[in-house]
TrEMBL record:
InterPro entries: tRNA_lig_PDEase
GO molecular function: ATP binding; RNA ligase (ATP) activity
GO biological process, one term: tRNA splicing, via endonucleolytic cleavage and ligation
Species of provenance: Perkinsus olseni (Perkinsus atlanticus)
The name this protein goes by in its record: tRNA ligase phosphodiesterase domain-containing protein
Region (Disordered): 222-244
Lineage: superkingdom: Eukaryota
Pfam families named among the record's database cross-references: tRNA_lig_CPD
Domain spans labelled tRNA ligase phosphodiesterase: 150-264
Length: 266
């Protein structure tokens, strides 16, 4: 950028280009403080000296970075003395090929953290749940290497792309945000386990509360090589290879009422 500190317009163009990398920059994460990094770097930038240019046989040219891509390519070709070597069709075709490559580049740096909305059980409800599950289930989990969770919750929404959610996710967030820190009641009456992979308790809300999961549940624990989200697949039957019917075990409990508070996890 030409004079990125003083030229606010040029600065914004550069920042926009950085943001549009969407996490594909080799060293800057998409959730990094781009403005601070950019401004700090710009303040430390030093002009290239004639001696440095001469060392590499280079020349210095000004190119307007506010031009569109086609305009910038033409400018670069002009200063290189190659502007007569390519037709507009060839240039635009090459630009499209570059755009296709950029589209498929996988992010190298870490992207933004997911945002979750959970109904977290109170300490009293956590204790009551542990007591209600019973030794038979806990023994089963221990024998199969399923590690019990320390705390329990119902996931209401998992937003993997908080900076760019789809319409349905954005609408659900709008419904859930006003409920943060509010209490809700729910009940459980069974435990379901799948082999040595996962154990969960289906839940029934006693009041209306928005929830993305078709089968709301509390994950009791997860085994080696499994993930908490497998509770969804187990309860819905969506992945019979990982969760065949022959490996499904269920224990019926006395109906237990629990309470929890909606929390937003960023």
């Amino acid at each position: 950028c030409s004079d990125p500190v003083k030229g606010s317009h040029y600065r914004e163009v550069c920042l926009t280009n950085l943001r549009n990398r969407a996490g594909r920059h080799r060293s800057i994460a998409s959730n990094a403080p781009i403005e601070k990094i950019f401004d700090d770097s710009a303040k430390k930038a030093q002009a290239v000296t004639n001696g440095e240019l001469g060392e590499y046989g280079a020349d210095l040219f000004d190119i307007d970075v506010t031009l569109d891509r086609y305009g910038m390519v033409n400018e670069i070709l002009r200063v290189l003395g190659r502007d007569k070597d390519f037709t507009e069709e060839q240039i635009r075709d090459a630009m499209q090929k570059v755009a296709d490559i950029e589209k498929d580049i996988k992010p190298v740096a870490n992207g933004p953290k997911p945002r979750m909305f959970q109904l977290q059980l109170s300490e009293e409800s956590t204790k009551n749940l542990r007591d209600a599950v019973g030794f038979e289930t806990w023994d089963y989990m221990s024998e199969n290497g399923i590690k019990p969770n320390d705390r329990f919750h119902v996931t209401l929404l998992y937003n993997a792309l908080p900076n760019n959610p789809d319409d349905a996710t954005a609408e659900l967030e709008r419904q859930l945000y006003p409920l943060a820190d509010q209490g809700f009641s729910l009940e459980v009456s069974s435990v379901v386990c799948s082999g040595a992979r996962v154990c969960a308790m289906p839940v029934k809300f006693q009041e209306h509360i928005p929830c993305r999961n078709e089968h709301p549940h509390i994950t009791l624990g997860v085994g080696p090589g499994a993930t908490p989200r497998e509770s969804n697949d187990m309860l819905s039957g969506a992945d019979p290879e990982k969760h065949p019917r022959s490996q499904i075990h269920e224990w019926t409990l006395e109906r237990l009422e629990l309470d929890g508070v909606v929390r937003v996890i960023n």
